[in-house]
Q: What sequence folds into this?
């Protein structure tokens, strides 16, 4: 194999740059050329790609986001769009593609590999909802941003004897909320995998208040049925229910833009290298991920359309710690 391309797709995740750097330098080390595709699958269709040299990927590892740009690309979901993408890569002599991204992006990888074009995915999403990797690039940084916000809000919660409701990202997955909730000492964690009613949240807050807690923290996953908006709606109808005066913070995209933590830089580097090694070994249609602290590959067909379950024992742990 003489030439590969690399792209980042879907939501940007801290650590993507480390993965781009690792793909580029591992491939060049193995005697290959590397083309960086701009703005994900959109760039493949628009034929927007350029060679990456070792130096082009220097000084990027500590930066959040992705130096290649990213996009969500509905056109790639059509056969016509994908055919243009493959034709463009072939015209550049690109023989294989590395896709750094999350669930939707790896569905794109799978479909492309089913068309006969060699693709290897790299597990990257702040949601950590992708099968095939215990952790995905970006999730550690996103949890740390959420945690910093929780710690700061706690200061105000303590000073004003309030309860704070913090909503974090994660799409349909509660991983970020659960981990930030445990690490941030939340009184209540609300996640889609273990739905609780607003009445139940109020009861837990009330119980904390009655135990003498002078402030409280509720961490809510955006994907929960009772997300921040729904909970606030409920608490407005019965402001006395919790015992606390309540304030709400929705963190949103602020969680994606962090400088990557050491863990995400290392993960990006290891998985980027792993993807190129997989291609060199003749693998295609697989995802490079981390399992039991080892870089492994998993067939994309075992991953697409699925959501990695979270460990509900950790949910139990969160509630024991809150008592
Ligand atoms: O998948 C990453 C993520 O940040 C989710 O947590 C969130 O639901 C979604 O992307 C937001 O997407 P967008 O940036 O397109 O608004």
A:
């Amino acid at each position: 194999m003489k030439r590969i391309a690399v792209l980042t797709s879907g939501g940007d995740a801290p650590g993507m740059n480390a993965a781009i750097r690792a793909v580029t330098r591992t491939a060049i080390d193995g005697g290959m050329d590397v083309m960086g595709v701009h703005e994900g699958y959109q760039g493949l269709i628009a034929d927007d790609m350029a060679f990456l040299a070792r130096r082009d990927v220097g000084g990027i590892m500590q930066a959040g986001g992705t130096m290649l740009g990213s996009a969500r690309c509905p056109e790639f979901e059509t056969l016509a769009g994908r055919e243009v993408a493959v034709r463009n890569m072939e015209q550049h002599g690109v023989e294989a593609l590395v896709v750094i991204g999350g669930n939707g992006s790896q569905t794109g990888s799978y479909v492309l590999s089913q068309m006969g074009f060699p693709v290897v995915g790299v597990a990257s999403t702040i949601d950590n909802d992708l099968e095939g990797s215990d952790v995905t690039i970006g999730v550690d940084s996103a949890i740390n941003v959420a945690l910093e916000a929780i710690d700061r809000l706690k200061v105000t919660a303590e000073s004003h004897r309030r309860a704070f409701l913090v909503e974090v990202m994660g799409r349909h997955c509660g991983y970020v909320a659960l981990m930030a909730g445990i690490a941030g000492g939340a009184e209540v964690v609300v996640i889609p995998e273990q739905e609780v009613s607003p009445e139940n949240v109020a009861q837990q807050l009330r119980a904390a208040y009655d135990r003498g807690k002078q402030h409280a923290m509720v961490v809510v996953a955006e994907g929960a049925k009772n997300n921040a908006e729904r909970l606030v709606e409920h608490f407005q109808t019965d402001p006395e229910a919790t015992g606390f005066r309540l304030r709400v913070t929705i963190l949103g995209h602020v969680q994606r833009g962090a400088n990557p933590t050491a863990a995400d830089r290392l993960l990006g580097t290891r998985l980027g290298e792993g993807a190129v090694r997989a291609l060199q070994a003749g693998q295609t249609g697989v995802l490079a991920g981390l399992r039991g602290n080892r870089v492994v590959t998993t067939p994309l067909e075992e991953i697409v359309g699925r959501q990695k379950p979270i460990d509900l024992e950790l949910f139990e742990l969160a509630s024991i710690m809150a008592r």
User: Anything to note?
Assistant: Residues 11, 72, 102, 125-127, 169-171, 222, 256 surround 6-O-phosphono-beta-D-fructofuranose (CB under 6 Å). The chain is about 40% helix and 20% strand. The chain has a mean pLDDT of 96.
